[in-house]
Amino acid sequence: MTKARVLEDPRRFFGTPESLVNSDTYSTREKIEILQQWKRNEDDLIRSSGEGLSGGAKPILNEVLKALDALQASHC
Q1: Average pLDDT for 26-30
Q2: Total domain count, the chain
Q3: Cys bridge to 68: 4, 7, 35, 52, which one at CB 3.0-4.6 A?
């Protein structure tokens, strides 16, 4: 699992932001980068859902934001 592939679709590789945060695979800085991409993906999913183009996945933006906030706070 390369970081480039994970960045394409973090949800596919980790399922939940919590799984990423608890993973030993990446550094805190890399996890923040992945969560930032995950946030963009979730924003796109929400926007698509609003346009009637939902792919069936339920947005988990709040979970992503909580994980991102926690990691950024611990990284300072």
Answers
A1: 96
A2: 1
A3: 35
